[in-house]
Design a protein that fits this description.
Strands 1, 2, 3, 4, 5, 6, 7, 8 and 9 form a nine-stranded mixed sheet that branches. Helix 2 packs across helix 3 and helix 4 runs antiparallel to helix 5. This protein is of the alpha/beta class and 288 residues long. It has nine helices and nine strands. It has two domains: 199 residues, 3-Layer(aba) Sandwich (Rossmann fold); 81 residues, no CATH class. It starts with a strand and ends with a helix. The chain is 34% helix and 17% strand. Strand 3, helix 1 and strand 4 form a beta-alpha-beta unit. The radius of gyration is 18 Å and the shape is globular. GO terms for molecular function: hydrolase activity. This is Alpha/beta fold hydrolase. InterPro entries: AB_hydrolase_1, AB_hydrolase_fold. Keywords: Hydrolase.
């Protein structure tokens, strides 16, 4: 695979940075790999398994190298979708195939609802679609509590709640009084409150992503082939259940991918999945 070509594009309220790994002679559409708030670095390992495809990765606004304008508010899925539309248009190679994970899957579904011509096949991997869960009231309330904890006490207490909530298997409780919170210091996260309140997860995307209401009528009518993916090791977790709920609303059958919520990742971040097996399953789903 060739070295990534790093490019930028100006969009309203931000400068978006994205990377293109060209594959000369490829007749397939570009393969775009996205997350949110995860930036392009999280997909470097997976990209390496597609040397025969032009691969595009990007940093969502406010994450990694993509800088938001000073004083910008929260980043909504519709805003991320508009950014993605502009990047795909700038590429001039669409429609793309799109693997979108976690919050990226929420944003990609918003993109397809508005611009179905941008995407040939969307693989939406474990969207944390809390609005679609049968226990949505508990889920949404816990997420609101998490955001309030971040606003009041800072990153570490909010991250402890995040890790606890996303690890629960099955319906979410009304509160976390009976749930043991992890020690985030042992996981390498900072524990001192630095006073800032613009974290890309908690301040910019947490509420807008999980509370987003998808346009299922538009998605069912879209020309895009939509495949919902869930992890074989994450059964019962909120994002896995969110994927099942989205698939049910679309009237489709979800596809099980290897490993956990970050199953496409290598060992760079200490939470290695099974990227080679993940890539093989992705190729199969894309019809290669």
């Amino acid at each position: 695979m060739t070295e990534p070509q790093t490019r930028t594009i100006e969009v309203p309220g931000a400068t978006i940075t994205y990377d293109v790994r060209p594959a000369e002679g490829s007749t397939e559409p570009p393969l775009m790999l996205i997350g949110s708030p995860m930036d392009a670095s999280g997909f470097a390992t997976l990209a390496g398994y597609f040397p025969d495809r032009t691969v595009v990765t990007y940093d969502p606004r406010g994450a990694g190298r993509s800088v938001r304008a000073e004083g910008a508010g929260e980043s909504t899925p519709d805003l991320h979708a508009a950014d993605l539309h502009r990047v795909i248009d700038e590429l001039g190679m669409g429609p793309v195939d799109l693997l979108a994970s976690s919050g990226g899957a929420v944003n990609a579904l918003a993109l397809v609802a508005k611009h179905p011509g941008d995407v040939r096949t969307l693989v939406a991997h474990e969207p944390p679609a809390a609005q679609e869960l049968p226990d949505r009231e508990h889920a949404l309330a816990l997420i609101q509590d998490m955001r309030q904890t971040y606003d009041k006490d800072g990153f570490a207490p909010a991250m402890a709640m995040f890790m606890a909530i996303t690890s629960i298997r099955g319906p979410l409780p009304g509160d976390l009084s009976g749930v043991e919170l992890p020690d985030v210091a042992q996981m390498g996260f900072p524990t001192e409150d630095d006073g800032t309140r613009d974290d890309v997860l908690f301040a910019q995307n947490l509420i807008t992503c999980t509370h987003y209401r998808h346009d299922f009528d538009a998605l069912r009518a879209a020309s895009t082939r939509i495949v919902v993916a869930v992890g074989e090791e994450s059964e019962g977790e909120m994002a896995h259940r969110g994927g099942l709920a989205v698939a049910e609303r679309l009237g489709s059958t979800p596809v099980t991918f290897p490993s956990h919520h970050g199953g496409f990742m290598g060992s760079e971040f200490g939470w290695a999945g099974k990227p080679e097996e993940f890539a093989a399953t992705l190729r199969k789903v894309l019809g290669e």
